[in-house]
Write a structure and sequence with these properties.
The protein has helices at residues 21-35, 41-54, 110-125, 129-134, 139-148, 159-162, 176-186, 206-213, 217-222, 232-239, 245-248, 262-272, 291-299, and strands spanning 12-13, 58-60, 63-64, 67-69, 77-87, 97-105, 169-170, 190-194, 200-205, 255-256, 276-281, 284-290. It is of the alpha/beta class. The protein folds into 2 domains: 3-154, Mannitol-specific EII, Chain A (3-Layer(aba) Sandwich); 169-299, CBS-domain (Roll), CATH 3.10.580.10. The strands form 3 sheets. Strands 1, 2, 3, 4, 5 and 6 form a 6-stranded mixed beta sheet that branches. The protein has a 3-stranded mixed beta sheet with strand order 7-8-9. A 3-stranded mixed beta sheet has the order 10-11-12. A hairpin with a 5-residue loop joins strand 8 and strand 9. Helix 1 runs antiparallel to helix 2. The longest helix is centred in the middle third of the chain and has 16 residues, at 110-125. The chain is elongated.
């Protein structure tokens, strides 16, 4: 099914008279109330803003996807607002927020809701789509732009729907100091190791860093009174510019393709106790899927 089939003209505002995302949400909820007078938009807004408190739903690239699963509605509703001048809300990529897509769904149709969110994210990632929407003159034009994009609401969630495309990477000749700096700055526990052509070689984890200075860690664990003349972490500080990724990284990792079903990856993560799976095209690294992202997508939307 095409994403455009999810839209109705009566739920589109092609020129939002709002300056903030919250004000845009109010306008879109008013549209719904006008069509469904008995609906409790106060309760719905509380749930939408509660979700915003947990994590800002501004996606970047000029789009935001506020949403909520609530049995205050009996069907899925997709409401779209377009700001010509851009909203004042701060965004993760500093691109002004121009398009607000509000998704509301009851709990019993959560799968379609997740797939619709994914389809809108795919639409937002395509260069030029933001500009096309910003230049529309009518509600019908908005639907036509989304129709012409060809974006589909797929039957099943796949890796491409949830994966992160910005992957922190290092090469074998990078120093462990650089690895530690990148991990600390980005709050990461692992980095992908690639060659100069972007081919995935393996990964280096925080565990690898610790093992680099405790090569005899098994002896240390079995005998807590074991001591060395030199404190091992002091040794690392002395050699952090000399030790390289190539000396400690591991080739023990799992991969998936763009079209691998999320349920398959989730099963593999549970069975093998994995925190992450790298996404490749051939041997090229193109993304990463984290276990916590699957949990967040399923539980929080």
């Amino acid at each position: 099914m095409r994403l455009a089939n999810m839209l109705k003209e009566e739920y589109i505002v092609e020129n939002l008279p709002a300056t903030t995302k919250e004000a845009a949400i109010d306008i879109l909820l008013k549209l719904l109330q006008n069509d469904k007078p008995g609906i409790n938009i106060t309760k719905i807004k509380e749930l939408v803003m509660e979700r915003e408190e947990i994590e800002d739903t501004s996606y970047g690239r000029g789009f935001a996807f506020p949403h909520a699963r609530t049995d205050e509605v009996d069907d899925m509703y997709v409401l779209v607002g377009i700001s010509r001048s851009g909203l004042v809300d701060r965004t993760r990529d500093d691109v002004p927020l121009n398009v607000v897509v509000l998704l509301l769904t009851p709990s019993h149709i959560s799968r379609l809701y997740l797939q619709t969110l994914s389809a809108f994210a795919s639409f937002a990632r395509t260069e030029g789509n933001l500009e096309k929407l910003a230049n529309t003159a009518s509600k019908a034009d908005v639907i036509e732009v989304i129709w012409n994009s060809g974006v589909m609401v797929e039957k099943e969630l796949t890796v491409k729907d949830i994966m992160r495309r910005d992957v922190a990477t290092v090469t074998p000749n990078h120093s462990l100091k650089m690895v530690a700096n990148i991990m600390f700055k980005n709050r990461l526990s692992a980095l992908a190791v690639i060659d100069d052509d972007g081919n995935l070689l393996g990964q280096i984890t925080d565990r690898n860093l610790i093992q680099a200075v405790l090569p005899d860690y098994k002896t240390l664990i079995s005998n807590l009174t074991y001591s060395r003349e030199t404190e091992p972490f002091e040794e690392l500080l002395k050699q952090e510019d000399k030790l390289t990724v190539e000396q400690v990284y591991t080739k023990d990792h799992e991969i998936a393709s763009l079209n691998t079903r999320i349920v398959e990856v989730a099963g593999m993560m549970i069975f093998k106790d994995l925190r992450r799976v790298f996404v490749t095209e051939g041997t090229k690294l193109i993304g990463i899927l984290l276990r916590k992202d699957i949990a967040n997508m399923i539980i929080r939307g």
